[in-house]
Amino acid sequence: LKQFWREPPLLKPTGRRAPSSRLLGPGAPPGSATREMMRAPRVAAAAAPALLRSSARAASTLPAPQFAPVKFQKEDVEAVMKELPAFNFYEIKEPVPNPYQSSTLDRSILLDPPAPALVAPKTEFSKLENGLKIVSVDKQGLTAHLGLYVSAGSRFETSANFGVSHMVSMMSYASTAHLSHLRTVKTLEQLGAHGTATCKAGREEIVYKVDVMREFVPLVVPLMVGNVLFPRLLPWEVKAAHKKVKEAKEALDADAMVSELLHKAAYCNNTLGFSPLASERSMQYFTPETIRSFMLDHFAPERMVLVGVNVAHSELTKWAMRSFADYNAIPLKKREEAKAAYTGGDLRMEGSSPFCHVALALESPAWGQAEVAPVTLLQTILGGGNASASGLGAGATSRLNTQVVKQSPYVESCAAFNTSYSDTGLFGVYGVAQPEKAGDMCAAIAKCLTGMTAVSKDELAKAKAMLKGKLFRQLDDDSQLMQDLGTQVLLSGRY
To answer: What angle do the packed helices 457-475 and 372-382 form, to 10 degrees?
Structure first.
């Protein structure tokens, strides 16, 4: 273990309430901007039902789930290898005619199809001896969704390592103690998971995700764990990743740029105001030593949750145990978790969009508080609208659509959002309009917000019904379900 985790000297850390706003002024084609302008609000709105449910559970008197303990075991390697699915790393296939070319999807190609196992899905919880939590829901789907959530992000960075969270994510699925970078990539390609294997650094968590056929879960779980247990962090691989920093910045669309400005204005120079993206100024910190030091401080198993959807819980726990059994995990270190300080403010920047993107936000309750429920209902009542969208689910009767979007031909879209973190949150409205009419749109948004003091019983009942519908639709989405499981258990240990 010491061969791969050579710990450098510890880095020395350094250490008017107003609405936050973010603006992005007027290159992209109008059509693309119209399609993309509602992406960020949709993400925030999609997360709202999960936040509502999590807050309701956290505020209730229901007992915390019981995590079944999983003991480390010494096993025979030959016996373990026999359990792995058939897998050919080196494979050369000659082109042959497709024997199922004329077969339609409504007819089985199996000569003896197995009878379906109709089992009601349930959430199961386990915990390894080292503190790693494991949660799964088996919906009998053919594609397994795996996620490894780590309680580490940009809010835990210091002036000595700004951008390190982004660096960690860029070094994912590279060389480990067991696999070279090439072999890791080729393995994912052979499993059909090279397009779904991702790692994203956020403000409070770093998430490794892989979607793969469920029979290949025994191969993918050790590969994922290798990213956090024994990454090699080879100097030439780190140097090759430097160019990805500029590429990530250039790939930001208008919504993402506005989101960055909003957090910087709301939490100026502290915690959530730190960007999860590395900058050009961070290149001097982009070294194996900086990345290794950050992981040693925050990547203990006690701060991780392994989530699986469409996978048997016994299989997930077994292969997670085997991945850690013969190795010493990173020990848990005490860390100072500074509370997010809401400052408020205003930030603006020029962008390539021909529209003006504006967000007006206020501080809202933190995740898990009972007040999140009424705030989420306010978000549902405000709703949103799009000048080019109509029909069911387009928010035609919401307040923002009727009082802002439909009142001006210059407003392209408008939507409410609510984002909650462990100790604070942001609630507000995001709008897109012609630059010369942005002031009028902001005035209309402010007027709509001040009118929220009066809500009728019928309007409240409709908002509750809509919120429940969103929640149930989310449960049908495996990716959203995995995100919901991982976030809730990581923040509170409950679901």
So the answer is: 100
d(CA 347, CA 360): 11
The number of residues making up the chain comes to 495
pTM above 0.70, yes or no: yes
Residue 209 has phi, psi (to 5 degrees) of: -130, 145
Determine the 3-state secondary structure of 185 from DSSP: helix
Distance CA 260, CA 264 (A): 6
Q: What is the mean pLDDT of residues 144-152?
A: 98
Written in H, E and C, the secondary structure of 277-334 is CCCHHHHHHCCHHHHHHHHHHHCCHHHEEEEEECCCHHHHHHHHHHHHHCCCCCCCCC
**For the chain, how many helices (H) and strands (E)?**
16, 13
Backbone angles phi, psi at 298, to 5 degrees: -130, -15
* Residue predicted with more confidence, 487 or 88: 487
DSSP lists the bridge partners of residue 143 as 213
- Rounded to the nearest 10°, the torsion over CA 348, 352, 353, 359 is -20
The token pair at 417 is: 């959002």
